[in-house]
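Continued from yesterday's entry.
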Amino acid sequence: MIFEIFQILSEQVNRYFKEVGLEDSEVILNNIAFVEGSTEVAEVMRDKVVMTLVNFQEEPALKNFPNHTRSDTQTVYRNPIVNIHAFALFSANRTQYAQALKDISVIMEYFQSKKVFTQANTTYDREVNSMAAVGPFRFTVDLFSPSFEELNFIWGTLGGRQLPAVLYKVCLLPIHAGKVSGTGPLIETVENSLKHRTS
């Protein structure tokens, strides 16, 4: 589901670029760490806004929720769903610095105007094979402001070259394989026997 959510977000921002008249601005999914050099991957990212996954964080508050279903004859147990936050870095790898700042500003405008994404309020290209099986979803996108130290660490990890960029926390992406971990009979009655103790 991570790729699908990032694909949806990149499509949404690209659509907004066109709405505000930035026809030459484009978001692509790629690893900004490979932007240096003359490789084919670097060329793909030239003069684009690059959306990169930089980290994950598990949501601990939802970690211990049980995950089982009941049928007529048995209870089906699965491991609990893992709910994660994904950190998405939008880096403006533009030849003109002023254009890079415009791109980042428009991205921030877009996510200020729309923070909650669901299947009902979001359109995306369902014709793409990888997107055809996307089910109902709901996630939020929050601006994340790292400290100067954290920012230095992020760009040091990504190769050292700092670009105009903005970091967002994409919240509550459910990860589950749907595999059954066990089954058991339905618990229909509870018996309790109390003994009176006299001293």
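--- second protein ---
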Amino acid sequence: MIKLLAVDMDGTCLDRKSRITDGTIRTLRDAAAAGITVVPATGRSMACIPHRLAAGTIRKNIAGYGKMSEDARDNQGLFRYVITSNGAKVTDIVEKRELFREMIPKEAALALLEQCRKIRLGVTSHMNNEYLLQGRILVLLGHLVYGRDAGAVRWVRDMSETVRTSGYEVEELQFYFMSLSARNEIRSVLAGFPELSAAYTRLYVEVFAAGASKGNALQALADHLGIRKEETACIGDGENDLPMFQAAGLKIAMGNAVPELKKAADIITGTNDCDGAAEAVRRYILCS
């Protein structure tokens, strides 16, 4: 019997237009009502948890997060624990405390940002649960792509200066490829940073501490809750979900998942445009 369910957000619970359907929300509610601990496991920062899921506890404790929507009010109690920034943090939003954290060393973050200055990249970061974007063009693109979920983003003029002067640690850095060669150039740079890990998508690379992963975060949460591996399930679509698959007993890949994840999966469900995550929860978890 599954007791802990970790679900990725983008590409899994959210469709290609970054929307989460009523059917998916209803199925996650059903899972929570059945006594399953439902955990969003995302590369996003806490402030950018999809607004239709974000519980009031999150919204009241993130500066500039805005008013709680009716959906968020309806979904209070849907989840208590959140894995954010690709496993840099596991947060108990009820007790307002972190159960797990693995931050990028500030010296490494500054050195990486300096070495990337000559590469055509868009630069963003997660710090203090916020999503920081260098340059107004990225802020505009963020609002166009993510809509209300991008309501808590914050513009900064220079990311290196922001990291250098901030009293907060870096949860994650993201670099968007602005040229055909940018992907290979930053891959070469990252080879010189063994203390960091990276997960690539078609458009950007996510960089986090070597000890941070959705897998390590999920394992830490399962240990905290006293839940065994065989009682844990996860659903994902991307390269950053591979470590989570190693920590879960039941591994479900989306129909739109990358080939590596499909190879590691026990089950392949429908795509994110066809409520594949909800289908898998109903067929393989709620009916078990």
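The CA atoms of residues 222 and 228 lie 7 Å apart. Residues 106-209 form a domain with the Hypothetical Protein, Haloacid Dehalogenase-like Hydrolase; Chain: A; domain 2 fold (CATH 3.30.1240.10). Will compare against the first tomorrow.
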